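Step 1: inspect the first sequence and its tokens.
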Amino acid sequence: MSKLYLMCTVCNRARLPEFLSLYGEERLDHNLIMLAHGTATNEVLSTFGLENAEKAVILTFVSDVVWKSVKKALERKIRIDIPGTGIAFTVPVSSIGGRRELTFITEGLEFTQSGEESELKGTKQELLIVIGNRGYSEQIMDAAREAGATGGTVVHANGTGMKRAEKFFGISLASERELILIVSTTGKKNAIMQTIMKKAGLETDAKAVVFSLPVTDTAGLRLLEPEESAEGSDAPANAESKEA
């Protein structure tokens, strides 16, 4: 069975249409786009012949089979290996909230999943990523807090390929979107995802879709297991996460 990954592409903003065109050729037409700035110094920019540090970040879902094809296309057609062109990498997806959402996200991918969630075992924390209509982050976070989440971070973004949503949900998803990042214990993950889907999901004005990525370790979050607390930590065993 093919595995599901979140592919993250960082490129020069001026070349964003070129990357999106290539992803369209690869039938990856459901992307989330965020504008960003690089942090390279002027000396580094000069060394690599870059005019500015304006960047674009593209998020999309791929299977391991599709990733191999996309990687070859990036190297052959865009020459991504040339310094200053961009980078692309993948992160395994541990779960997706809802059967329709799973079908929507994985349409066209060589990916098979019998249940409602694709799970990656063995992690104590998860990064929940919620994609919803802009202006509804508080509704989404209220639902998440009800199930035990304590904080989140909101990022503004724009979506492409959203017309496909009408086929699955009978609705048109707005192009202006918000990305909400929530770190949770694995034990609370399902409850948080289910509550978001129920109170801020596709049946509501927020039109939120939620999925999770495995977190291998954290710092600055008091998400300790009881056995870890017993090994000399002054923090209580059931301490909650602080606001992100």
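Step 2: inspect the second sequence and its tokens, then contrast the two.
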Amino acid sequence: MRQKALPLLVAAIFAFGNGAANAHDAHAEHRGGIQSAANKAVKADFDIVHAKVTTENNVVTFHMAVSGKAGKSKPAKTGKLAGSNVFSYVWPTSIDPYEVGFERGTGILAMALTAHPDFDDTPLYDENGDGNLTNDGDLWHSHWVVLKPTDACGPGALGVVDIPNGAKPRLPKTWPGLPILIDSPGWEPVFKGQTVEVRVPFDDIGVVAAAKFDGVTAGLRVNASVHAPLLCVVDVFKVASGDLSLPGKPNQ
């Protein structure tokens, strides 16, 4: 399922190019954005064929389509936090993390939809409606995350930015208390057949309209030490652009 070596992807993320993969789908909902040909070597529910970002009033819609049933696969439960896995649909952007509540210039801001049965990182929300706020990690849910190359995750690999012990950085109000730059705002993703979307309110919609984006499906893993780093990207299943060059432009 690995599409490319992680070091090559990380090297490319800062090269904001204009290339995109070949067109795939002629349906209206798949027009514009970034098109990608289906790849039988990638598991179908992570095989991105289209990714786009649109804005309407103060709401941003992150959209992704795959060649199979979106959201079908989730990680196997391990029974412990350390070493557990996370599956994700991700839209890396060129938006400064400051715009959603983090410090300026801290890394690559991405909208991520994740599922992970071994822990719950949305403590303000009861996604499964059972009255327990701490047992919903296996359901798909949304995050803002800040990523950067992290040597401790492997040569050239990306990780979610850690918060050093004792540091008190600027954080969003819905930060879940983990020692990483992550926000758990509670926006619910909608899976429908081959597509997934999440609608996100945004204070300054002009910032989004001027940004660039890409689409990624990936597997992450909680470090055995559960900190420094806490969460690393360990598998990149597919990149919409093919090279993580962030060629997408909202509303185009």
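Step 3: confirm your contrast with the notes below.
The chain has one domain: 1-24+37-73+109-128+136-230+242-252. The chain has two helices and twelve strands.
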